[in-house]
Design goal:
By secondary structure, this protein is mainly α. The chain has a single domain, classed as MFS general substrate transporter like domains (Growth Hormone, Chain: A), CATH 1.20.1250.20. It has helices at 2-50, 54-82, 84-103, 108-136, 142-170, 184-190, 193-203, 210-215, 219-230, 236-248, 267-281, 284-297, 302-330, 332-354, 368-386, 389-399, 406-434, 436-457; strands spanning 178-179, 182-183. A two-stranded antiparallel ribbon has the order 1-2. The longest helix has 49 residues, at 2-50.
Length: 470
């Protein structure tokens, strides 16, 4: 009996350690969520303070995504060169710089510049966290631990919306009012520096990826890490030999390695790019970047619109918890298919509800029953996204590529995700002026197409070791 208890204790100890280091890496996801969605509460204040129109506002909101695409593009090669942990530290510094200086911006131009700097950090975090977690997690837990990245993202979104609402209330409902010597929207951006500093501290406390250590001939360090994360019963020498064999059979990845013998991009890379694009083309980030303006445009006041943003972020967290609890049992592909159908139906309902917006007076308004329908539909859409595509895409991108191109292919796929995000975010202000119904109909069509894309092209990765991906 004592032996059993000791074994269980040892298992709990190493699994607890794995959770800690995976959560530390996922802190980058928290900042990813905070930075990308905090603008939702600040956008009204930014627009009023700098007296800019929808095009300039749209660029200020979406400019971070250009930085994100660049950050995601360079993250993989840099992580392979200097290690995953050092890249996390770089992202932490960039988050601090962006948060403070964007909050102190004196024009829409430098605000956009510092938003781009934060975007670079987001892009880096979006690549290094799933790569690191996938490489350090035992195969039987990898889906759940990989889901911590998305859990951190949605928590960051929730916290940012909660802070936005609290600051707006402290400023008497107007984000251009001063609190503690600065306008409320500025504090929304500056506060990001605090979790960014925590991220840097956590990055200093976690070990380097064993795959990186083996690739750089630091075998003894790799042995220590593997013992800590997989327990003393692991055949460490056998695992190191397995990883080393895979690494030795590889050469340093270059972008031409993503091409097949016919000169075209490898199908698996195209599938990763497709997943990334569809994740954005369903319009999820319209909810998280523009929902305060969206609800104001149909008659809700600033406080009510920010409170609705808080409620959707809560639904986002709940959906993500559902995904984490079932992804290693149900699998990645079934969750994505369920989510696609749920999002299609919810978006169609939102499109129908917005067809009843009345703009005859020049100020948008919507009858209460249809407004309630739009709100419920938006919340249902967020839930289905969170319990499926929000988690599944990041887990798949961390798993689906062969070892020899994983970091590089993930960087490319994530870059396309940010470019797609930029396209959606930049276009929404113009699309919404044209037609909210038309906008949400487009997103519904994309959600439906995502179902058939997954059905035909995506293969299940549940329970497979990373070395099995071919």
């Amino acid at each position: 009996m004592a032996t059993t208890r000791t074994g269980e204790s040892g298992h709990a100890e190493h699994f607890g350690y794995v959770i800690f280091i995976a959560a530390a890496a996922a802190m980058g996801g928290f900042l990813f969520g905070y930075d990308s969605s905090v603008i939702n509460g600040a956008v009204t204040g930014i627009q009023k303070h700098f007296n800019v129109g929808t095009n300039a506002t749209g660029f200020a909101v979406s400019s971070a995504l250009l930085g994100s695409a660049f950050g995601a593009w360079i993250a993989g090669p840099i992580a392979d060169r200097i290690g995953r942990v050092k890249v996390m530290l770089i992202a932490s510094v960039l988050f601090v710089i962006s948060g403070v200086l964007s909050g102190l911006a004196f024009s829409i131009v430098d605000l956009s510049i510092w938003r781009i700097v934060g975007g670079i950090a987001i892009g880096i975090a979006s690549v290094v966290a799933p790569t690191y977690i996938a490489e350090i997690a035992p195969p039987q837990y990898r889906g759940r631990l990989g889901s911590l990245q998305q859990m951190a993202i949605v928590t960051g979104i929730f916290v940012s919306q909660l802070i936005n609402y609290g600051l707006a209330q402290a400023a008497n409902g107007q984000t251009t009012n001063n609190i503690w010597g600065l306008q409320a929207w500025r504090w929304m951006l500056i506060i990001e520096a605090f979790p960014a500093l925590l991220y840097g501290g956590l990055a200093l406390a976690v070990p380097e990826s064993p795959r990186y250590l083996i690739a750089t001939h630091q075998t003894s360090r790799a042995q220590n890490v593997l013992h800590k994360v997989e327990g003393d019963n692991l055949d460490v020498d056998g695992r190191i030999a397995e990883i080393d064999h895979v690494i030795r059979s590889e050469h340093k990845p270059r972008f031409r390695d993503l091409l097949g013998p016919n000169g075209f991009v490898l199908p698996i890379v195209l599938i990763g790019i497709g997943l990334s694009i569809f994740q954005q083309f369903v319009g999820i980030n319209v909810i998280f970047y523009y929902s305060s303006l969206l609800w104001q445009s149909v008659g809700y006041n600033v406080s009510s619109s920010l409170l609705l943003s808080v409620s959707t972020s809560i639904v986002n967290v709940v959906g993500t918890i559902v995904a984490i609890s079932v992804i290693d049992r149900v699998g990645r592909k079934p969750l994505a298919l369920i989510g696609s159908l749920g999002m299609t139906a919810a978006l169609a309902v939102v499109a129908w509800a917005f067809s009843h917006v009345d703009k005859t007076s020049g100020v948008g308004s919507i009858p209460k029953s249809y407004g309630t329908t739009a709100i419920v539909g938006a919340h249902v859409f967020v839930f289905f996204f969170a319990m499926s595509w929000g988690v599944v895409v990041w887990v798949l991108l961390g798993e689906m590529f062969p070892n020899k191109i994983r970091a590089l292919a993930l960087s490319v796929a994530a870059s396309f995700q940010w470019l797609a995000n930029f396209a959606v975010s930049q276009s929404f202000p113009s699309l919404s002026r044209w037609s909210l119904t038309g906008s949400y109909t487009i997103y519904a069509v994309m959600a439906l197409l995502s179902f058939f894309f997954v059905l035909k092209f995506v293969k299940e990765t549940k329970g497979k070791a990373l070395e099995e991906m071919g």
